[in-house]
Inverse folding.
């Protein structure tokens, strides 16, 4: 009797796994035929208050390199409370939702180089199922626990990815999510046999406690470089339709829409219409019918944000041979350059200053040579790299997709084979200093290059 029961249990488990590992066969409103495999469904993770949570995932396998050997990249949007699936359909996925709610091909999709996984986190974000309303779950520690649990469930559903090179990338509040998740992976001993973490990358990340950080000097530096008075931006009420300046990119217009889903000035009309299509939700295996929004404003409003910076976690990752790439669009007023630069100013710059100065990228098209992407600086022997991006604002990968693909390629190419783990150590001293320390030379250099570019157009 026992063998029969065991067989029945195995069949049930296999059926459940197959249901969770659900291949997306066909998507409505898709304007081309994909040459890659994709899966979507739910990953189960435990909550801090007991019980389990189901987070929605969407995996797009590589289109231009062998998916069986290509690395795995986890992409995370920030907020807190914004959907990574929205990042797939608006930022770096193989599909881009247009204003007609159709999916066009993205020529700079990240799955050209890797298998890319998108997870909506925490509970209630995007297509993830909401959990019981519990303030104790809306904080960074609980979100880290959810993300790690979901990741472990992913590896149980997709064992072929175990031990394969793994990277985490994202933007904005993912500047908190990602270092904490990387630290949890390292501290938990889940790598390299299971989660073989090789690198992390964050664009325009919030790495500090926002309530204790004075951004005004850096915001004024950006507006001065553009010839804009600071009060022209400061007086904007982002909840009002009178808003005219885009704080996420001062050189781009502000799209006015009540459907922005908590992301002011962003055109999400096509995304919202696409995700509202019940045929789309069925194709993705969504449980029930979800009223999707790019950002969940209730979660954003109730989220208990971290009260200290993540420099220790970044140093720990770098000291454990995890490559760290931090990049920042120069036209972002909401989270200006100083947010990242001032954090890194606490670390000693590499003494040989190798690689410091301009960094280059390619348009990846016939007839184009190399172009200057911005300026860069390295720390801890090149284990931490910082780059600025000219002509981009808050979402570098969305606004400069060719640069975004170059950043991913450089992250994947970072050579950690000769890396020897070292004891992580922060310079002695107090916490992150507030205000502008007389103006970073790197920040001033960026603004000068930015201004010269704008004057040339």
């Amino acid at each position: 009797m026992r063998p029969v029961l065991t067989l029945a249990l195995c069949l049930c488990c296999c059926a459940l796994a197959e249901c969770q590992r659900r291949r997306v066969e066909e998507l409505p409103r898709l304007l081309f035929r994909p040459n890659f495999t994709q899966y979507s469904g739910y990953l189960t993770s435990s909550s801090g208050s007991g019980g389990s949570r189901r987070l929605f995932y969407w995996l797009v396998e590589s289109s231009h390199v062998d998916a069986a050997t290509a690395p795995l990249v986890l992409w995370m949007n920030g907020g807190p409370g914004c959907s990574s699936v929205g990042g797939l359909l608006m930022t770096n996925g193989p599909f881009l939702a247009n204003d007609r709610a159709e999916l066009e091909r993205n020529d700079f999709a990240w799955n050209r180089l890797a298998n890319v996984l998108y997870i909506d986190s925490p509970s209630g974000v995007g297509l993830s199922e909401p959990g019981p309303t519990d303030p104790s779950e809306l904080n960074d520690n609980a979100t880290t626990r959810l993300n790690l649990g979901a990741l472990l469930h992913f590896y149980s559903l997709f064992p072929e990815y175990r031990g394969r090179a793994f990277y985490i990338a994202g933007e904005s509040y993912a500047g908190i999510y990602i270092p904490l998740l990387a630290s949890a992976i390292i501290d938990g001993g889940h790598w390299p046999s299971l989660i073989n973490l090789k690198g992390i990358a964050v664009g325009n990340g919030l790495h500090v406690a926002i309530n204790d950080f004075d951004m005004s000097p850096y915001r004024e530096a950006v507006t001065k470089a553009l010839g804009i008075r600071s009060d022209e931006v400061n007086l904007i009420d982002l909840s009002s339709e009178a808003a005219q300046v885009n704080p996420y990119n001062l050189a781009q217009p502000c799209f006015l829409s009540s459907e922005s889903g908590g992301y002011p000035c962003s055109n999400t009309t096509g995304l919202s219409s696409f995700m509202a299509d019940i045929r789309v939700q069925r194709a993705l295996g969504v449980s029930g019918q979800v009223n999707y929004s790019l950002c969940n404003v209730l979660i954003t409003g109730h989220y208990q944000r971290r009260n200290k910076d993540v420099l220790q976690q970044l140093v720990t990752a770098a000291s454990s041979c995890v490559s760290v790439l931090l990049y920042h669009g120069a036209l972002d007023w909401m989270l200006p350059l100083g947010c990242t630069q001032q954090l890194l100013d606490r670390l000693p710059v590499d003494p040989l200053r190798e690689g410091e100065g301009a960094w280059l990228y390619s348009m990846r098209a016939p007839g184009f040579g190399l172009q200057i992407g911005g300026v860069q600086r390295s720390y801890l022997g090149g284990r931490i790299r910082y780059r600025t991006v000219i002509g981009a604002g808050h979402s570098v990968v969305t606004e400069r997709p060719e640069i975004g693909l170059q950043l991913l390629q450089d992250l994947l190419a970072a050579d950690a084979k000769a890396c020897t783990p070292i004891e992580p150590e922060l310079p002695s001293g107090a916490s992150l200093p507030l205000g502008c320390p007389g103006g970073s030379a790197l920040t001033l250099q960026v603004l000068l290059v930015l201004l010269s570019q704008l004057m040339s157009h």
Remarks:
- The mean pLDDT is 82.
- The longest strand covers residues 370-379.
- The two ends are 79 Å apart (CA to CA).
